[in-house]
Design a protein that fits this description.
This protein is elongated. It folds into 2 domains: 35 residues; 32 residues, no CATH class. The protein has 93 residues and is an all-alpha fold.
Amino acid sequence: MHFAKKHNKKGLKKLHTNNAKAMSARAEAIKALVKPKEIKPEMPQGASRKLDGLALLAHPKHGKRAHAHMARAHRLHRSKTKAQVQAKTRLQL
C-alpha cells in the first residue's frame, strides 16, 4: 500500500469516529433538553367500530389489505334484487 493512501485512510477513520462522537453527544444533549411529553392516544378510548375501521384504512401498510378485504366482502354479500327475493319466496311456498 502506498504511503499517502495509508495515511489518508487513517485520516478518514479519525474523521468517521469524530463524527460519530459528535452525533452521539448531540443526541444526548437533545435528550437532556427536551422533556418527554405525555403520549396522548390517537383514538379516544372505547371508540366506535367505525372509527377503528377508518384508522385501519388510514394505516399505510394495513390499509391496502383492509381495502381488499372490504371489496371482497362487498362482492360476496351483495344485496339481492327484489325479483330474486320474490322468486325465492315463491319457491319456498
